[in-house]
Design a protein that fits this description.
single chain; about 140 residues; mainly beta; 4-stranded antiparallel β-sheet; 1 helix; 13 strands; globular
Length: about 140
């Protein structure tokens, strides 16, 4: 995923819902609070399954998907991040420079005194997720 790819995804996803749903994996393939990377063509997505824990509030047990490209290191490593919460909102801390992102909105909540590389936006692209009959699907533009 390049800078141009991220910009195109933001524009495409802004106006409409997903153009297609892609099968990612079985729900049982995802371990709670652990990330997994999925590749759809040239788009890398990081998937996170949240535990059934009161700390996650209304997000408990849900699966979230964001871009796997870390905008601060320009490496596809977000799926290796540390899952947590901020005021009940599920988050992931990037493994390289420790920026914290919302898994719900993709917003960068903590910059950690860094700026994104290669003119990448600081926030992550988010993707809709559906779980049907224990199969995880990701909505792509």
């Amino acid at each position: 995923m390049t800078v141009d790819d991220v910009a195109a995804l933001r524009v495409a996803g802004a106006a409409a819902g997903p153009a297609r749903w892609e099968r990612a994996c079985l729900l049982t393939d995802l371990f709670p609070e652990r990330g997994a990377a999925a590749l759809f063509g040239d788009v890398q997505v990081a998937l996170f399954r949240l535990p059934d824990d009161a700390a996650y509030g209304v997000h408990a047990g849900q699966v979230h998907a964001v871009q796997n490209l870390d905008p601060f290191s320009a490496a596809n490593v977000i799926s290796r991040g540390i899952v947590g919460t901020r005021a009940g909102e599920p988050t992931v801390a990037a493994p390289v420079y420790k920026q914290v992102f919302s898994l719900v909105t993709g917003t960068c909540l903590v910059l950690a005194d860094k700026t994104p590389k290669d003119d990448l936006p600081a926030d992550l692209v988010t993707y809709p997720v559906e779980v049907r009959e224990d199969v995880v699907y990701v909505g792509l533009p």
